[in-house]
Design a protein that fits this description.
Elements: H1 2-26, E1 32-36, H2 43-59, E2 63-67, H3 74-81, E3 89-94, H4 95-103, E4 115-124, E5 126-130, H5 139-148, E6 154-157, H6 163-175, E7 180-183, H7 187-195, E8 201-205, H8 206-214, E9 219-223, E10 250-257, H9 262-277, H10 279-287, E11 291-292, H11 297-317
Parallel strand pairs: 1-2, 1-3, 6-7, 6-8
Antiparallel strand pairs: 3-10, 4-10, 4-11, 5-8, 5-9
Length: 324
């Protein structure tokens, strides 16, 4: 009797495996939804639309990016975690998911286990900008001024736990600076005060600020890429300036609900990888200030876990208290 039960269980396992393999081989047979947990118009959305439009051509079904903002991204993430793991609902995830760990005491999901990493799109570097007319021509100038005037220099961000604050906090800690954090409701307000000299420095995505930098309205000091940025070849990296935070990127990628068949995950990963290698896609991403970075699912999972751990450590050392 036990032997028959064992045999029946084995047959059932084989049947399920064959069914899953067949489903993955046929996938997708209809439109695929990719949930963006933020309002439309962000760099994440623009990147997702560009890459997934090409993926749709390769796979033969449309990919629909659906914005579900709310709760620092929690609403959208939670909806994907609860979705059936059938390959028709994915998440546009980003570095904001790592920040959620320090902004909230608890989350209604376990982002490291309730989601299956699929593919990395890449990242958007930040540029360290200084106020004009204050004599900050290099990173060393800024550091020297901050150390000569402890507690007096100010840096801008677009809010507690934002990428702009986290980049500045990493820099502050590496340089051993005592500076003031001034959060703003948005980048326009922060840039206005930087150009007016009311703020001393600000980490901000590179592309939107290129016109200000080239017009001399702000002083670019360094970029957070591993290599120098092609559009500003004379600008050193932070690592070259003595502060190795060059791995800091505002990144985004794709994840799926846990238990999504690996065959589907691998198929989508391969299609995204193919899209990212196209010269036309790379050129358009670069013009958006975005650097593509292909990763296998396992690599992307490790990248996310490492980013979460680093963000949590940074939040503790920067004394960022969760709101709830």
């Amino acid at each position: 009797m036990r032997a028959l039960r064992a045999m029946g269980a084995a047959f059932a396992a084989v049947a399920i495996s064959l069914s899953t393999a067949a489903m993955a081989q046929d996938w997708p047979t209809r439109a695929v939804t990719v949930v963006s947990p933020f309002a439309g118009g962000t760099t994440y959305d623009l990147v997702a639309h560009l890459v997934l439009d090409q993926v749709a051509r390769l796979i033969g079904q449309p990919f629909v990016v659906e914005n579900r903002p709310g709760g620092d991204g929690i609403v959208g993430v939670a909806s994907v975690v609860k979705a059936p793991p059938d390959g028709y609902t994915f998440l546009l995830n980003s570095s904001a998911m790592s920040a959620a760990f320090i902004l909230h005491k608890s989350l209604p999901y376990d982002a490291l286990h309730d989601l299956e990493p699929v593919a990395m799109f890449g990242g958007e570097p930040s540029i360290l900008l200084a106020a004009p007319g204050k004599g900050y021509a290099t990173v060393d100038d800024l550091v020297a001024a901050a150390k000569a005037n402890p507690g007096k220099l100010k840096f801008a961000s677009v809010g507690i736990g934002s990428a702009s604050q986290l980049a500045a906090e990493r820099f502050r800690q590496l340089a051993g600076l005592d500076v003031q954090h001034v959060p703003y409701p948005g980048p326009v307000e922060a840039l206005n005060d930087l150009t007016a000299g009311r703020i001393d420095f600000y980490f901000v995505p590179i592309t939107p600020t290129l016109p200000l930098a080239t017009q001399g309205k702000v002083m670019p000091l360094a970029v957070s890429t591993i290599a120098r940025w092609p559009q500003l070849p004379g600008l050193p990296t932070l690592a070259e300036s003595g502060y190795p935070i060059s791995t800091f990127l505002i990144w985004c990628g794709i994840s799926a609900p846990a238990n999504t068949p690996h065959e589907i995950v691998d198929k989508l990963n391969a299609a995204i990888g193919s899209a990212l290698t196209l010269p036309a896609i790379q050129l358009r991403l670069e013009r958006m200030g975005f650097k593509s970075a292909q990763m296998e699912p396992e690599q992307f999972g490790k990248f996310f876990a490492d980013d979460v751990a680093a963000t949590i450590d940074l939040g503790k050392s920067a004394h960022i208290a969760p709101a709830n």
